[in-house]
Write a structure and sequence with these properties.
By secondary structure, the protein is mainly alpha-helical. 76% of the residues lie in helices and 0% in strands.
């Protein structure tokens, strides 16, 4: 069940170690090109996952209602304000380079918050499908190299947050799996909605959109209710 989580944790550790060794010698152009390439891979994974559903209306309603819920709760704004508050707090005590805490917080937010984390961990726990977490692991491997080269050893410590959060979601998902599996359409429809969000994430990575993907996260869970009536 935790194979995807363990692989993702390992790639963060490996990428961070490489980034610490390389320091700041990675050119910005190389970082940008690689990240956009991984964005294209995210689009591929998202589009592939979108083909597994059987009721497009569930996806449409879930995304629309989920977006309303996310906007009303201002999930994206709350997350950004939380991150900015922590960043300011840690920067007050900075005397030179980035602090260990700053690197840990920044990397943890990037690695652990988002649609791919939630959907991948749910798939890990519900169906044993690790593909999405493997894809995320590749993204995090590159990201951890880049972050560690500039933010230091705190990024390496963020691997612990990846293990706890993704592993926790996967374990909780495995506990509720028998309930969800009573309606065979629930898990595939949740995967489809999550895959739509992965497409949005991929668009952000390649620079063709600035979607507030976090505000759409509630949509992932709405098929649990909708599949009871549709």
């Amino acid at each position: 069940m935790l194979v995807g989580t363990l692989v993702n944790t390992a790639t963060v550790i490996a990428g961070s170690l490489i980034g610490l060794i390389l320091g700041n010698i990675l050119p910005e152009r190389l970082r940008d090109t690689v990240m956009k390439g991984l964005g294209l891979c995210s689009l591929f994974i998202g589009v592939t996952g979108m083909l597994g559903g059987s009721n497009a209306l569930i996806t449409i309603i879930s995304v629309a209602v989920g977006a309303v819920i996310g906007e009303l709760l201002d999930l994206d704004g709350r997350l950004n304000r939380f991150a900015e508050g922590l960043e300011k707090k840690f920067q007050k005590n900075k005397t030179g380079g980035p602090s260990l805490a700053e690197g840990f917080v920044t990397a943890s937010l990037v690695f652990c918050v988002g649609a791919m984390t939630i959907v991948g961990s749910l798939n890990d726990g519900l169906t044993g499908n690790h593909e999405m977490l493997f894809t995320k692991a590749t993204l995090d491997f590159v990201s951890s190299m880049i972050f560690a080269s500039s933010l230091g050893v705190g990024v390496l410590m963020a691997a612990s947050a990846v293990f706890v959060i993704e592993g926790g979601i996967a374990c909780l998902a495995s506990l509720v799996a028998p309930v969800l599996q009573q309606n065979a359409a629930t898990i595939p429809e949740m995967t489809v909605v999550g895959s739509v969000l992965i497409v949005g994430l991929g668009m952000n990575l390649i620079g063709v959109g600035k979607l507030k993907v976090m505000n759409y996260v509630p949509a992932i869970f709405l098929p649990i209710v909708l599949c009871l009536f549709m």
